[in-house]
Amino acid sequence: MSVVRTVLGDVPAGELGVTDAHDHLFIRSPLLPGQELDDPQRARTALREFRELGGRTVVQWTPYGLGREPAALVTLARETGAHVVAATGLHQAVHYSAATLGRVVDTLAELFVTELTEGIGSTGVRAGLIKVAGSFHELDAHARTTMRAAAAAHHRTGAPIAVHLELGTAALDVLDLLCGELAVEPGQVILGHLNRSPDSVVHHEVARAGAFLAFDGPSRANHATDWRLPEVLASLAEAGYGDRLLLGGDTVVPGTPGMPYLLRGLRPRLELTLGKALVERILIANPARAFSLAG
């Protein structure tokens, strides 16, 4: 039986229900001073509204060192009845001080394995996925180091690897490294932010390779993606890749629509174009496979 590792323990993958495949209840970064998501009441309100709209599971991609708040995630999961998946992993180097990177860079794989199998810090709350990040149109040295550690941890734990693609770029470079050189099965890789670079050739190549494609987050002012999303998803589905698609809210700073918008605003629009059956598949069946621990 396939299982997904949530902050309250492992659950059968079939119980995930409607899933926000990429979001943040808590996140802090020095790149976003004064825009921290660190308010438990705000997180509780968002999660409750998501549940009232039919949502069941939220996958938080906040990695090591960026304010994951694992104990608070447990409290929220218990209070709302939601499944919440936490992440280990490491973001781009710019999100960390040199001192923080210096403490962990030589032991990343062990850190990831520990957080996946024993718990984050002293909380005992186990992560359920590994989050790493590429850079703009390339993989810099930091990205390659963290992805090698992620692959090593994946092979030891079966945890899926979720990848932040900077503005949606370098997807094929990521797959060349993770699935080529490092022998991670493509179906264990989730590529995030593909909506930010609506390149249909790349999308189809990534889907053909077998990875999951995450279209996560409503458009920012400079991302003309919301209005193109239905046609992008329809093109992939018509090519036979409807089973590779995921949707997420990716709430990063206060004031963004976030996870309730995913179901209140985006889902009805997509149902008009794609049909309810495909949208249900994207929100329920696909995440159950994407976030399962490999056996």
UniProtKB/TrEMBL annotation:
<keyword id="KW-0479">Metal-binding</keyword>
<dbReference type="Pfam" id="PF02126">
    <property type="entry name" value="PTE"/>
</dbReference>
<protein>
    <submittedName>
        <fullName>TatD family hydrolase</fullName>
    </submittedName>
</protein>
<feature type="modified residue" description="N6-carboxylysine">
    <location>
        <position position="131"/>
    </location>
</feature>
<comment type="similarity">
    <text>Belongs to the metallo-dependent hydrolases superfamily. Phosphotriesterase family.</text>
</comment>
<feature type="binding site">
    <location>
        <position position="24"/>
    </location>
    <ligand>
        <name>Zn(2+) 1</name>
    </ligand>
</feature>
<feature type="binding site">
    <location>
        <position position="193"/>
    </location>
    <ligand>
        <name>Zn(2+) 2</name>
    </ligand>
</feature>
<dbReference type="GO" id="GO:0008270">
    <property type="term" value="F:zinc ion binding"/>
</dbReference>
<feature type="binding site" description="via carbamate group">
    <location>
        <position position="131"/>
    </location>
    <ligand>
        <name>Zn(2+) 1</name>
    </ligand>
</feature>
<dbReference type="InterPro" id="IPR032466">
    <property type="entry name" value="Metal_Hydrolase"/>
</dbReference>
<feature type="binding site">
    <location>
        <position position="164"/>
    </location>
    <ligand>
        <name>Zn(2+) 2</name>
    </ligand>
</feature>
<dbReference type="InterPro" id="IPR001559">
    <property type="entry name" value="Phosphotriesterase"/>
</dbReference>
<feature type="binding site" description="via carbamate group">
    <location>
        <position position="131"/>
    </location>
    <ligand>
        <name>Zn(2+) 2</name>
    </ligand>
</feature>
<feature type="binding site">
    <location>
        <position position="22"/>
    </location>
    <ligand>
        <name>Zn(2+) 1</name>
    </ligand>
</feature>
<feature type="binding site">
    <location>
        <position position="250"/>
    </location>
    <ligand>
        <name>Zn(2+) 1</name>
    </ligand>
</feature>
<dbReference type="GO" id="GO:0016787">
    <property type="term" value="F:hydrolase activity"/>
</dbReference>
<keyword id="KW-0378">Hydrolase</keyword>
